Amino acid sequence: MSTPTIAVIGAGLGGAAVAALLQKAGFDTQVYEQAEAFSRLGAGIHMGPNLMKVMRRIGVEQQLEAMGSHPSHWFSRDGASGDYMSRIELGDHARSRYGAAYITVHRGDLHALLVDQLDSERLHYGKRLSGVEERGDGVELSFVDGSKARADIVIGADGVNSALREALLGVEAPLYSGWVAHRAIIPAAKLEAIEELELSAFEDCVKWWSEDRHMMVYYVTGDRREYYYVTGVPEPEWDHGTSFVESSREELREAFADYTHPVVQALIDSTEEVTKWPLLERDPQALWHKGRMVLLGDACHPMKPHMAQGAAMAIEDAAMLVRCLEAFGVEHYRQAFACYRDRRFERASKVQQVSHDNTWLRTQEDPAWVFGYDVYAEPIDATEKSVA
Ligand SMILES: Cc1cc2nc3c(=O)[nH]c(=O)nc-3n(C[C@H](O)[C@H](O)[C@H](O)COP(=O)(O)OP(=O)(O)OC[C@H]3O[C@@H](n4cnc5c(N)ncnc54)[C@H](O)[C@@H]3O)c2cc1C
Fold it and tell me: What is the DSSP string of 307-368?
């Protein structure tokens, strides 16, 4: 009997994580990524203890801890008065209470580390999935370059505009949420040069709020070389037809005119380059798998980034899917997929909803249901196999 093969579509954060875990567990896993080569895309990303526990299994927790910033708190503050609306303890508290560190990093550095864990001979760049067809005992994949591949099962980790999702659920564009995100990185040297403010005024992890918008700010490197902000600002239409556009200091000044706190204004004044992104989402959907195909991450449940948990959900999905495949075996993919979906649907849907509402940590609350979660502690009953 030949060894079953698994195809992963997309080598983003979720795809690289699932493929790394599958390959570590000994599954024959091929990864198909549309990009021509790796590039250091994105900017900041929060890695809560729930996500760091998966990084531990992949074997990169220590490297991430070394490269990331370790905030002592998540602060929420009023954009005008600077009043503290919440002080969520992280640092040593997170480590002891939730079982791993809370760090912030550059998304590109995290991505590079995950991709480095993959067998390079099984990572195929320049492979944009264009068609998928279940035939007999496998799935035939077609790519835009005219090539084809075959696999026993296919994992769609191809992001918010997933081609595999289309194969499962038909063509349906993601919803524009009515919010945009401005994203900028400010070199620490620029902050040091501000005479009116001490460098310590720029806290390690702080979200500035008003009624309908916010600015989340944190370091993306452990040596505090790069400070990063990402906003959430209402904008009724997105008709640019691109995934992002250039923005400007002036646009930020206008959007945050009411944020009179000097730290926020200093950040805007120090901005050299800033881009603006539409925030896309979907409503929770019941169908996560069909036949030999299964979805994870943004392909399945894209969300506004306001909880900083989108990648965490993709990577928790990855860990649970691999656990279920290990418990049931690829040949029992139906049960494995059902096991995975049953254990992920409620949590991912709740995080989608709270992200949509943008209420996370705005006031003092207990974040244990998110940070304390351990995907490896969830029981899996392999006797579910007998249902087959
Ligand atoms: C502004 C912003 C800030 C964010 N901040 C955070 C944060 O702090 N913390 C957090 O946890 N999350 C954050 N997120 C969310 C996070 O980035 C995503 O949820 C996460 O990247 C999803 O991972 P994924 O693997 O599902 O998709 P992606 O990382 O988008 O990867 C999809 C991959 O599939 C490839 N692909 C697409 N189509 C095809 C195809 N047809 N064939 C082959 N390959 C294909 C793409 O090239 C890409 O490499 C943020 C998102 C935004 C927009």
Answer: GS-HHHHHHHHHHHHHHHHHHH-GGGHHHHHHHHHHHHHHHHHHHHHHHHHT-TTTSS--TH
Would you please indicate which residues are annotated as catalytic (active-site) residues? 46, 218
Amino acid at 34: Q
Counting from 1 in the atom list of ligand 1, the atom nearest the Cα of 48 is 11
pLDDT at 388 over 50: no
Q: What is the pLDDT of residues 247-264, one digit of tens each?
A: 999 999 999 999 999 999
33-69, pLDDT tens digit by residue? 999 999 877 789 999 999 999 999 999 999 999 999 9
Query: pLDDT digits over 329-366, tens only?
Result: 999 999 999 999 999 999 999 999 999 999 999 999 99
Question: How high is the mean pLDDT of the chain?
Answer: 96
Residue whose CB lies within 8 A of the most ligand 1 atoms, among 8, 9, 13, 295, for a mutation test: 13
Asked whether 163 lines ligand 1 (CB < 6 A), one says yes
Counting from 1 in the atom list of ligand 1, the atom nearest the Cα of 16 is 25
The 8-class DSSP code of residue 69 comes to B
Cα–ligand 1 centroid distance for 311 (angstroms):
7
Burial environment of residue 385 by CB neighbours within 10 A (0 to 12, 13 to 18, 19 or more): middle
CA–CA separation, 135 and 154 (whole Å):
13
> Which conformational region is residue 169 in: left (phi greater than 0), alpha (psi within -120 to 50 degrees), or beta?
alpha
Residue from 158, 244, 275, 279 whose mutation best tests the ligand 1 pocket (most atoms within 8 A of CB): 158
Ligand 1 atom, smallest distance to 311 CA: 11
- pTM to 2 decimal places: 0.96
Cα of first residue to Cα of last residue in the chain, in angstroms, is 21
pLDDT for position 71: 98
How much is the pLDDT for 387? 42
Q: How far is CA 17 from CA 1, 44, 47, 144, 311, in A?
A: 28, 18, 14, 24, 10
**Ligand 1 centroid vs 328 CA: distance in angstroms?**
28
CB of 129 shorter than 6 A to ligand 1: yes
Q: Which domains does the chain have, with CATH numbers?
A: 5-173+282-386 (3.50.50.60)
